[in-house]
Amino acid sequence: MLSRELLSEKFIFCKIIEINTIPMRLLIPIFLILLSSLVSAQTVLEGKLSWNEKWQSKIYISPLTDFESNDKRIDSIKIHRDGTFSYQIRHDGSNNLIYRLQLPPVDGNHNTIIEGEAENVVHLYLPPNGTIFLSADADSFCFSAKVNDSGINCKLLQLRDLKKPFRDLYVRIMKKINNNPDSSEQFKQEIYSEWMEEIGKYRNRTKKYIIKEEHPAVLVLGLYYYYMSNFGRYDSLFFSQTINRIDNQELPLIKKIRRDLKSVSANRLGMIFPGILLDDTAGIKKSIRDFNGKYYVIDFWASWCTPCRSSIRGKLREVYSQLKEKKVILIGISVDEDGVQWRQALQKDKPTWPQLRDAGQSATCQEYFEIFSYPTLFVLNENYKIIFETSSDIELEAYLKRITNN
């Protein structure tokens, strides 16, 4: 069988020129070989869903090349009335390993993500040739998905199953909120710590799974899940060690990770927090250097960020009351562009620690540290060097207790 490189347009054009000197009786075998090679470079994805009209009659499919679902190479697979579908993928040598399949609700599109029991995204490994058969229940597309593959896809579904305890917690929470809508905010506050703790457990399960595996498809999808469970943040050392285990560095997601690992946002540990002047609630310019502590906790938050607000009303308040006697200084830095909304949030949540605002065209801290997700929490030492970073106040509490021997 001819290699994929030999099937390039340049090769075929040259061969067409050369065959002018070949007897006509030899032309048919040559073209049959070329056609055979082209056909073999296809994967057939077939399947059957237990489908109903809550869902669109198509599945969006695209290669997993980024952490966001904005790949331009999105295609759709038609679902027939009996729930069956069939789709051919022609592999073009672009190094795609994992494909993202999404079943949209009737009022959604390829970016509509559903959480919990009805999670609507499945990730599959589609090899250069062969047939993969997928079966699933449309009402639980992700967690009911099964494939006729005891190899790599089996491992990918095991990766998926690591999320089941978190999914079960989500289902339980939403059921209670729906049954008690008038108390939903209070209940969300009560379960916030459990929620964040379960996310941390899920992330640790994923990390352990990645460490013990070798196949690049498993490593790529594992890093994708880990990144998502880490609130869109890199664990730079772990990501660097993992991608170095992968032979094919041309995989799209690996190339993106390698680029991102060179960015400021992936290398904030060890940076010195500058003495940037920011407005406090009275409109007075202050910097973190105006506060005297042994450790400094910087909480980047926003009034529109629900986890941020829950943390201010709950765990951060608890951490501050426990550790302020040990000269741990907590400083909130809001990224709200609207000062009125910032003050309204402060009046409602009533944090007892200093608050500054970094927003609008003068949002120098956000730009300096390339902060794109919230909350982002830094721990600085007495020299204002960043020694810890997280998005989880549960992880923050554990780290602070460890370094203060509390």
Please give the structural blueprint.
Elements lengths: L8 H10 L8 H14 L1 E9 L7 E6 L11 E4 L5 E7 L7 E5 L18 E5 L4 E8 L3 H4 L1 E2 L4 H10 L2 H16 L4 H29 L3 H14 L6 H8 L8 H9 L17 E3 L4 E2 L8 E7 L4 H8 L1 H9 L4 E7 L4 H11 L5 E3 L6 H6 L6 E5 L5 E5 L2 H11 L3
Q: Which bin fits the share of residues in helices?
A: 25-40%
Basic shape:
globular
- CATH H-level name of the largest domain... which superfamily? Glutaredoxin
Q: Profile the largest sheet.
A: 7 strands, mixed
The arrangement of helices and strands along the chain is HHEEEEEEEHEHHHHHHEEEHHEHEHEEH
Oligomer: single chain
**Beta strand %:** 15-25%
Q: Specify the CATH class of the largest domain.
A: Alpha Beta
Overall description:
The protein has 406 residues and is α+β, with helices and mostly antiparallel strands. It folds into four domains: 36 residues, no CATH class; 107 residues, Sandwich (Immunoglobulin-like); 101 residues, no CATH class; 126 residues, Glutaredoxin, CATH 3.40.30. Helices cover 39% and strands 19% of the residues. It contains 14 helices and 15 strands. Strands 10-9-13-12-11-14-15 form a seven-stranded mixed beta sheet, with helices on one face. Strands 4-1-7-8 form a four-stranded mixed beta sheet. A hairpin with a 5-residue loop joins strand 14 and strand 15. Helix 4 runs parallel beside helix 7, helix 5 runs antiparallel to helix 6 and helix 6 runs antiparallel to helix 7. It starts with 8 loop residues before the first helix and ends with a helix.
